[in-house]
Design a protein that fits this description.
15 helices, mainly beta, 977 residues, 52 strands, rod-shaped, three-stranded antiparallel sheet, single chain
């Protein structure tokens, strides 16, 4: 029994081993079949049913069990069959992961799958320039089916548009994806929104080329029951990218998109914001070496955020430049940020005009900061600005620039509904920094200025732009102020300038303009109308006239001002009006005061006058000037300066000043002409008429005068050798001639009156003529000036002298006539008379020194030769007569006769007849000169009889050789050579 038992055991074990081997063989055959042929339907159907429960309906070639990878479905395709507009997904194989725990309970379910070598095609209806479909190739992914119908995607990788795409995410109720319209393949009259978005995406991706090894990472989460519950995170990296707009390197892009569910219906945003309201979008990007057609940047960073109803945008640029020509600009760095708040309710206000109607409704605030802005027209060290758009107002709140060695701060507000602009500005910088932005005329005027310190400017204003740009003349109103120090204007240094100004209705107003340079201090106020070009200006203060010299451009102006010397500034109070750029309309009225100045060397202590100017005519009203500490005065009712005719007119001019100083001030030729006619002390004179103001180089300087000078109070006067203690009369200066009339002078203790005429036209000297009546002149004084101050001549001279022609350069050639009388004269000290004294004294001691009771004579003068045939000198014992000539070179050629006892009272005629033979002995020929006369008796008997009376003279005549006249009394005779 025991052995049978063990034998049965051995047989059982043997059959068990055989059965096990058969089972193993069957299993191996089954596995081989499942691996190389296909799964049986009883296995496939539960798996397909499980996938179908999850909304996955697939078509495939076969399903096999791979010993190393599990259940594998080969050549799988998903999508709406026969619908060309639906996305299709084809997979080389899908590895299914069964839920083995459920399998123990008799249920075969799939808890995950692995996709290998897949391809997703999303057709794009009506695609434009981009591809006809969006494709994902080389898809590799792991999908886990979790509770609540949640799909988790892990390790998803694919190739999209040349970039590696990595995707992960969790989708709840994923089976609902099958109900989405895009996966149904249905067509409608209007393309679905997803087709529109796909078309947009296709067009964008078709234009963007990512180079190198680009990578796109996506993370998607959401609930398939609600498309708005999805959240998408995207990250794109690429070594380089090329687009139609720009190219860049080291591209990094991040974005996240999620829907905002549960918004109340009354919070829906209006208009364009409706499509954006359900989403939350945040993105940022950074790339380097950006290059566009006309723009480049070494670094670009941009960030954006949208969460209804707000949107933020930030932009940063480094070393950016724009090179379109013109203009060109570059920045070292730029930061820009903007915030937008969409309106809760669309405004019902009328639409905004012009380009403002294109702006989306809502509020926008923005700010920017720039460093090192360089461009063709402008260079800015740094700039910052902020602003806002809150319909209908656009504002710039804090524009700040650092440029031109200073700064600028500005703000502006624009009302788009009313089309009005309000602005303010405060700045301290050199305007040359913005000169290229200004009009040509302003740049030209600005070129006159240079500053060692920037000027300060502040202004505020408004503009009405409702008619712009159709109407370029925009109504503008501005108020402001300007101040600067240490500036140069057209080469003239200014210490400081400050002013307030305003502009409204095309009228400029300047108030309180103050300017200073050294001793110049001016205050100006005025206005200017841009329409009429008419201006009004008030000028007060002190002005240093010397400071205009650098501004003078013409030679004439430089020359004329150069003849003036100013030691003190001009004090002025003027009102000026006219039209800009039309000098002929300029007019002015006011008062001037000047001290301590000189005109052509003639100094003036002070001058005060009213002044008017119009049509290039300046009139000085009631001018009053003083010289020499107030002892010399010049004044007039009016002095008129005509710049058209270059004349100066005097009306009731009054002067106690030196005439020579006035003549020098008129012109150098006038001064030289009047130099011989000297007033030793200033006379009192009245002046009327005009004189020329032509330059000294102009030969017509003296051909345009018509001036009358009345000497009201005489003064000592000198002309040549003549002197007078008083001269009164009238001088009429007409063109190149000067006529002196009504002359009344004190003449050597006597009196002289007459007239004189001077002609200044000759190239050399002055032609003159005159006529004088002389009474009771002192002979001694007269001869002291004409001959010698030590003469012993005495007597009272009267007579008349008429010079019909003469010239100042050759006065010895005068022509004329006259007559003279002498009373109670002692004339023997005159050599031409004293030569007879020794002879007469021999006849009767003292006869040759007797006093003449009177003398008379008439004469004519031709070419400087004076002829008289009736010069008679009367004395008690004799009568002396002269007949002959004497020229103005003092040469004598005369006949002298002495008639003894001829003037004896009662017996003179009888005694003359009785003594006639003796008288013939005293007839002589007189030659030589006035200073050294020669006497020769005309009768030979007289020579013999008179020889003993003149032994020395007789001996002198007998000896050969020249002799010396020791009897010459006069040693300083004019004209003697």
């Amino acid at each position: 029994m025991p052995s049978r038992f063990w034998r049965g055991c051995r047989i059982g074990l043997r059959w068990c081993r055989i059965s096990g081997l058969l089972l193993i063989l069957a299993a191996a055959c089954g596995l081989f079949y499942l691996d190389h042929v296909d799964l049986p339907d009883f296995l496939k159907q539960p798996l397909l049913a499980s996938l179908k429960e999850r909304g996955i309906v697939v078509e495939f070639a076969r399903m096999r069990l791979r010993l190393t990878r599990g259940i594998v479905v080969e050549k799988v395709s998903l999508g709406a069959a026969g619908s060309p507009d639906s996305p299709t997904l084809t997979l080389a194989e899908v590895q299914l992961s069964p839920d083995f725990l459920r399998l123990l309970h008799g249920h075969l379910e799939v808890q995950g799958l692995a996709v290998r070598d897949g391809r997703l095609v999303m057709p794009v209806a009506g695609a434009g320039p981009g591809p006809g479909a969006l494709e994902l190739t080389n898809i590799q992914a792991d999908v886990r089916f979790q509770t609540n119908d949640t799909w988790s995607v892990d390790n998803f990788q694919a190739v999209f548009n040349g970039a590696t795409l990595a995707l992960s995410g969790d989708i709840r109720h994923a089976t609902e994806l099958g109900h989405w319209e895009m996966f149904q393949g249905r067509k409608s009259a209007t393309p679905a929104n997803w087709q529109v978005r796909l078309r947009t995406l296709s067009e964008i991706t078709g234009k963007i080329k990512l180079e190198g090894a680009p990578r796109l990472t996506l993370n998607i989460t959401g609930d398939a029951r609600d498309v708005n519950s999805f959240a998408v995170r995207v990250k794109v990296t690429a070594p380089a990218a090329r687009t139609p707009w720009f190219s860049a390197h080291e591209l990094v892009f991040n974005a996240s998109l999620s829907a905002l569910a549960g918004l109340p219906t009354n919070a829906l945003l209006p208009g364009v914001w409706t499509n954006l309201q359900p989403y939350r979008l945040a993105w940022n990007t950074h790339f380097t070496r950006m290059r566009a057609e006309n723009f480049s940047a070494e670094s670009v960073t941009a960030r954006g955020f949208w969460r209804a109803p707000e949107m933020d945008l930030d932009l940063e640029l480094q070393n950016a430049s724009q090179r379109a020509h013109p203009p060109w600009f570059g920045v070292e760095s730029l930061q820009f940020s903007a915030q937008l708040t969409a309106p809760a309710v669309l405004a019902t206000n009328p639409p905004l005009p012009g380009l403002w109607s294109n702006l989306p409704p809502g509020d926008i605030t923005w700010s920017t900061r720039v460093t090192r802005l360089n461009s063709d027209p402008l260079k800015v060290d740094s700039a910052a600005a902020g602003g806002a758009w809150q319909a209908p107002e656009l504002s710039v709140t804090n524009l700040t620039l650092h440029l031109g060695g200073g700064w600028l701060r500005a703000a502006a507000r624009f009302d788009a509904a009313r089309q009005t602009l309000d602005f303010t500005n405060a700045s301290v910088f050199d305007p040359q920094a913005v000169a290229a932005l200004l009009p040509a005329m302003v740049r030209e005027r600005l070129g006159w200025f240079t500053w060692s310190q920037p000027p300060a400017l502040h202004l505020a204003g408004s503009a009405d732009l409702s008619a712009w740009p159709a109407r370029t003349n925009v109504p503008v109103a501005v108020t402001g102020g300007l101040a600067f120090t240490n500036a140069t204007v057209s080469g003239v240094d200014l210490d400081w300038l400050q002013t307030d100004f305003s502009y409204s209705n095309q009228v400029w107003q300047v108030a309180g303009l103050q300017v200073a340079r050294q001793s110049t201090r001016l205050q100006l106020a005025g206005s200017e109308d841009e329409n009429t070009k008419h201006f009004n200006l008030q000028v007060k203060g002190a002005f240093d006239v010397n400071q205009i010299r650098p501004w003078l451009k013409t030679k004439g102006a430089i020359r004329e001002v150069g003849r003036l010397t100013f030691h003190d500034p001009l004090v002025l109070d003027l009102t000026v009006h006219g039209e800009l750029h039309q000098v002929e309309t300029l007019a002015a009225t006011g008062r001037l005061a000047l001290t301590n100045f000189a005109a052509r060397g003639g100094s003036v202590d002070s001058l005060t006058t009213g002044v008017t100017y119009s049509n290039r005519v300046i009139q000085f009203v009631q001018p009053h000037a003083e010289r020499v500490h107030g002892t010399q005065v010049l004044g007039a009712d009016a002095i008129t300066l005509d710049l058209n005719e270059l004349r100066i007119y005097f009306t009731n001019g009054y002067s106690t000043a030196e005439p020579q100083v006035i003549a020098n001030a008129i012109g150098p030729k006038t001064g030289r002409t009047l130099e011989p006619y000297q007033f030793l002390t200033p006379p009192t004179a009245r002046v009327n008429g005009f004189v020329s103001l032509r330059s000294s180089e102009d030969n017509q300087e003296m051909e345009m005068e018509d001036l009358r000078v009345d000497i009201l109070k005489g003064a000592p006067f000198r002309w040549g050798r003549f002197n007078s203690q008083r001269v009164e009369g009238t001088a009429r200066w007409f063109g190149p001639t000067l006529l002196l009339t009504n002359l009344d002078t004190e003449f050597y203790r006597g009196n002289a009156n007459g007239w004189a005429a001077f002609d200044f036209r000759p190239a050399s000297g002055t032609d003159f003529s005159f006529a004088f009546d002389i009474t009771n002149a002192n002979l001694h004084g007269l001869m002291a000036d004409l001959n010698s101050p030590t003469n012993q001549l005495e007597g009272i001279v009267s007579g008349r002298l008429v010079v019909t022609s003469g010239n100042s350069t050759n006065w010895q050639g005068m022509s004329g006539y006259g007559q003279a009388t002498l009373q109670d004269g002692l004339i023997w000290d005159a050599p031409m008379f004293g030569i007879l004294s020794p002879v007469l004294n021999q006849l009767s001691p003292g006869l040759g020194r007797s006093r003449a009771t009177d003398a008379t004579g008439q004469f004519t003068m031709t070419n400087g030769v004076i002829y008289s045939d009736n010069l008679v000198i009367h004395s008690t014992m004799m009568r002396l007569s002269y007949t002959g000539t004497v020229d103005l070179h003092e040469n004598l050629n005369a006949r002298a006769a002495t008639q003894l006892l001829r003037d004896t009272p009662g017996l003179g005629t009888l005694l003359h007849v009785i003594t006639w033979p003796v008288t013939k002995l005293f007839e002589y020929k007189v030659t030589g000169t006035l200073a050294d006369p020669k006497m020769e008796p005309l009768n030979d008997l007289a020579k013999i009889l008179l020889a003993p009376l003149r032994p020395l003279k007789t001996l002198e005549n007998l000896l050969p050789g020249p002799g010396t006249n020791t009897a010459t009394v006069f040693t300083n005779t004019p004209g003697r050579k």
